[in-house]
Design a protein that fits this description.
Blueprint lengths: L4 E2 L4 E8 L2 E8 L2 E6 L2 H4 L9 E2 L8 H6 L2
Antiparallel strand pairs: 1-2, 1-5, 2-3, 3-4
Length: 69
Amino acid sequence: MDSRWVGPDGYEIVPAYRRDRQVLRVRRNGRVVADCSSVEEVARYVDLADLCEVIPLPTRDAAARTAVK
């Protein structure tokens, strides 16, 4: 559940759990707008074509960074 999608105007969609059910939580500027049970519900708030998945890049540990010059 590390997936996260962002869109224009401060929208962010993250997987979450509500009452033991997985939902797609729609936030705007950090505030929860809705918990959606389907992608179709998310589309009511943001155009799905505008969403971009955020993929965290791997990082090297501190020892490896100082060893490479």
